[in-house]
């Protein structure tokens, strides 16, 4: 009898704990968490507001969702920013990943129309989507986060609890995470990376150890057994150590991941499933830090870290992150050329551009970097000027390259990454 009485409340608790919930005052709508910000702002401020929660502006993936959002907003707002950014009238991308808007859209007739602007808002009365100017138009906005599972942990996102800790070496850090029934954090999506970065910037300073090992043969693994399906490795750093950290300090501008020594103490992040007080985690594949190895004789270049290297002159490049070089780099150019590169990133990010190589031959060879679409010059480099890192103010950046009359010129290589400073 006594046994039965104890058993029943546990069962009830289990069922309640598994219900999807929303945190931070978000409302559950069609299995997503939404929050209306009625204050009108430009698109970038709306993105910043959402990112404070680790959220994005809302995405709408089917007609049921479009109707539910209309109902949710009916009496509270008339026009709200949504998380779509259009590079051209044919190419629009969702903010929650760099996926394009292809499967479902509900643009009003004649839209998207980038002449009106590259951002998109939702007209509540009709449920139609309309292009608007990202900077000059002021709109209310709706942020979106995934649901999670009830847990009293302070950093609860998408079914996991995260804790941030002061400096330890890799092995000791993992032991502390295991005492919390978790592991050093894996980061398996852009969404999870965004959440962790938004919290890290509020909770800790300095670089942050994550639960990855990185062998010399470029084999990356997550300690908690997750599949290596997403990466934010910063192509500008060389891979010479076997543990991995998020560059969260000012020195490391890009906030990407880079290799660090397993024997050096760093602040770190633990992750465990939300709603679990006992361990349900996959046993870690290794708790022993991999032994430090000598740096490879030929360190991988930025080109190895990114799948595609673009060499085309005059192109709109794939969404950040990316890597491009002047045509034929590092072979000498056969004839003088002029090239224009248009760079883009999704809504909540800016673009960090780093010129890695620029072989000086003559001051005729010039790289110009413009904010947006060639309006404001951010920097001009001729191979003799010190190279710098440049950040756009919004989602776009334009780079031009002119090789002057010198024919023996080798060219340049550049990386561009999403930047959330
Ligand atoms: C959108 O993505 C799909 C699948 O990745 C691709 O086939 C299609 O060409 C893309 N459309 C646009 C307009 O970029
Ligand atoms: C589009 O829909 C198909 C089938 O419904 C799905 O497999 C695919 O992942 C979707 N693509 C995107 C970009 O959402
Ligand atoms: C790139 O475009 C510019 C004008 O927009 C043109 O002058 C230049 O020749 C083009 N470069 C190449 C290599 O096609």
From TrEMBL:
Residue ranges occupied by any CUB domain in the UniProt entry: 313-419
Matching InterPro entries: C-type_lectin-like, C-type_lectin-like/link_sf, C-type_lectin_CS, CTDL_fold, CUB_dom, Snaclec, Sperma_CUB_dom_sf
UniProt cross-references to SUPFAM superfamilies, sorted A to Z: C-type lectin-like, Spermadhesin, CUB domain
C-type lectin domain segment(s): 29-137, 157-271
Signal sequence residues: 1-18
Keyword match Membrane: no
Tagged with keyword Heme: no
PROSITE patterns attached to this UniProt entry: C_TYPE_LECTIN_1, C_TYPE_LECTIN_2, CUB
Alphabetical UniProt keywords: Disulfide bond, Signal
Name of the protein in question: C-type LECtin
Biological source species: Caenorhabditis briggsae
Source taxonomy: Eukaryota, Metazoa, Ecdysozoa, Nematoda, Chromadorea
């Amino acid at each position: 009898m006594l046994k039965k009485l104890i058993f029943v409340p546990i069962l009830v608790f289990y069922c309640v704990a598994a219900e999807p919930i929303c945190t931070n005052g978000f409302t559950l709508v069609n299995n997503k968490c939404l929050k209306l910000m009625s204050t009108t702002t430009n698109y970038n401020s709306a993105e910043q507001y959402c990112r404070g929660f680790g959220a994005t502006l809302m995405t709408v993936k089917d007609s049921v969702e479009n109707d539910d959002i209309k109902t949710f907003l009916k009496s509270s707002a008339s026009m709200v920013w949504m998380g779509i950014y259009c590079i051209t009238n044919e190419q629009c991308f969702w903010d929650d990943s760099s996926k394009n808007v292809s499967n479902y859209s509900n643009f009003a007739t004649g839209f998207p129309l980038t002449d009106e602007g590259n951002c998109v808002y939702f007209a509540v009365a009709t449920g139609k989507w309309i292009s608007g100017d990202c900077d000059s138009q002021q709109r209310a906005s709706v942020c979106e986060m995934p649901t999670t599972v009830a847990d009293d942990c302070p950093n609860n996102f998408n079914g996991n609890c995260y804790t941030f800790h002061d400096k330890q070496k890799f092995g000791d850090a993992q032991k502390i995470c295991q005492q919390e029934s978790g592991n050093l954090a894996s980061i398996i999506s852009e969404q999870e990376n965004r959440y962790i970065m938004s919290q890290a910037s509020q909770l800790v300073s300095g670089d942050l150890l994550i639960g990855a090992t990185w062998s010399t043969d470029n084999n990356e693994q997550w300690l908690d057994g997750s599949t290596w399906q997403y990466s934010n490795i910063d192509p500008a750093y060389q891979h010479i150590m076997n543990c991995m950290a998020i560059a969260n300090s000012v020195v490391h501008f890009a906030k990407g991941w880079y290799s660090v020594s397993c024997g050096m103490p760093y602040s770190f992040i633990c992750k465990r499933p939300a709603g679990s007080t006992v361990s349900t985690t996959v046993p870690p594949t290794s708790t022993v830090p991999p032994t430090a190895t000598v740096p490879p004789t030929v360190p991988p270049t930025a080109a190895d870290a990114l799948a595609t290297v673009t060499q085309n002159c005059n192109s709109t490049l794939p969404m950040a992150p990316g890597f491009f070089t002047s045509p034929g780099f590092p072979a000498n150019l056969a004839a003088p050329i002029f090239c224009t590169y248009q760079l883009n990133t999704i809504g909540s990010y800016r673009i960090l551009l780093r010129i890695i190589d620029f072989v000086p031959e003559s001051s005729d060879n010039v790289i110009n970097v413009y904010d947006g679409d060639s309006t404001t010059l951010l920097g001009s480099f001729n191979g003799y000027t010190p190279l710098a890192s440049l950040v756009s103010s919004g989602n776009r950046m334009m780079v031009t390259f002119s090789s002057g009359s010198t024919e023996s010129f080798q060219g340049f290589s550049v990386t561009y990454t999403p930047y959330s400073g």
